[in-house]
């Protein structure tokens, strides 16, 4: 799986998890949802994504179609 697809999967999981925790546990978990959304938004414009750096160090490869 490419880095780009892993980022989408991880971000989707984090948003789902934090929204669920915000609903059932404590509303402050929604700040984590906002953090993930803002990080995705800024990476669309700047190209900088901390999760991409982590995945690259773990050995995942970038998709050639988007590189």
Short overview:
By secondary structure, the chain is an all-alpha fold. It is built from 3 helices and no strands.
Features of the shown structure:
0% strand; 67 residues; mainly alpha
Task: Please describe what this structure looks like.
- The model has no long low-confidence stretch (mean pLDDT 91).
- It is built from 3 helices and no strands.
- By secondary structure, the chain is an all-alpha fold.
- 70% of the residues lie in helices and 0% in strands.
- It has one domain (3-57).
Give the biggest beta sheet: none
Fraction of residues in β-strands: under 5%
Series of H and E elements: HHH
Number of domains: 1
Structural class: mainly alpha
Mean residue pLDDT: 91
Cα-to-Cα separation, first versus last residue: 15 Å
Helix count equals 3
Q: Which percent range fits the helix content?
A: over 70%
Principal-axis shape equals elongated
């Amino acid at each position: 799986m490419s880095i780009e697809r892993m980022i989408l999967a991880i971000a989707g999981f984090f948003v789902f998890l934090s929204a669920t925790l915000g609903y059932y546990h404590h509303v402050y978990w929604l700040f984590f949802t906002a953090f993930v959304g803002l990080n995705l938004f800024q990476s669309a414009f700047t190209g900088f994504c901390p999760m991409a750096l982590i995945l690259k160090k773990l050995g995942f490869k970038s998709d050639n179609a988007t590189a």
